[in-house]
Amino acid sequence: MEETITKLLNPVKGILAADESTHTMEKRMATINVSSTPEINRNYRQMLFSTPGIEKYISGIIMFDETVRQKTDEDVSFCDFLTQKGIVPGIKVDEGLEPFNGGEEEITKGIEGLSERLKEYSSFGLKFTKWRGAFVISDLYPSDPFLEENLNRMVEFAKISQANGFVPIVEPEVLLKGNHTTTRCEEITTKVLRLLFAKLNNQNVDLTKLLLKTNMVLPGKDSTVKAEPLEVAGATLRTLKNSVPAEVPGIVFLSGGQTPDEATLNLNEIVKLKKDAPWQLSFSFSRALQGEALQTWSGKDENMKAAQEVFLKRAELVSRARQGGLE
Length: 327
Ligand code: 13P
Hints:
327 residues; alpha/beta; eight-stranded parallel beta barrel; two-stranded antiparallel ribbon; 12 helices; 10 strands; 45% helix; binds 1,3-dihydroxyacetonephosphate
């Protein structure tokens, strides 16, 4: 587990989230007028993973169950393909969201049978796992019963993962949707993270052998307010210092619906401002890394090379931002 963490937190690299569920993949492919099928998804992911030079910027890739059972054109499993490139293969193990108590909140499912699934994933060569919980901000939400239950499940996931030799990535995502202020996002993110770490401690989860994946602190998408990178960085670092124990080795950010440029510049500013922060700060973007490549590809074989170039360029920029190296 230590070796996996050291590799994932390489100082110039970060994690590519390519773990979109079947349903999310349908939505992504619909934006380029393509109908998602397992074979089309495989082609698309093969294109990303085989981008020449990807290993210079990407330390690990989070996959979905569908992908870890698929092979490249050369008949090599994607897990082995990535491992051979020096990229650590990981997997999302939650099974998505379901309604909670008849309200607007949706709770993460997938604890049942998790231990057995992990034994199979271990045999594939996967090294780390991810579990996402989503938290909506409104005047009413997140509700206390929802916070309790959703975070209890996340802690259970972390415990089961460590017991099976996997590095867990706990991902509480406070969502961008809504018209809340940056201050309200800070308040809720702090509350969620404090409760999460109190629960992890209570359950004796080893905080030195997990990663936190979380949102940057931003104003709600519908608020029409655009926060400058310096403000985002200040609010995000204050939130993390107030809620994340120093033993946690690394915090990786999701992009959460920001544009690729917004996510990249905000990460850059966070790293520039971090000073004596005790954790490594890195990225685990899906949309901000993949969005431009997906549009360039548009489902056409003849666009693959151009899409790989666009993907590599964005990965390089995000890698520089991870070092606070963009002007
Ligand atoms: P985004 O970067 O698109 O938010 O995705 C990250 C992720 O893994 C969501 O679970």
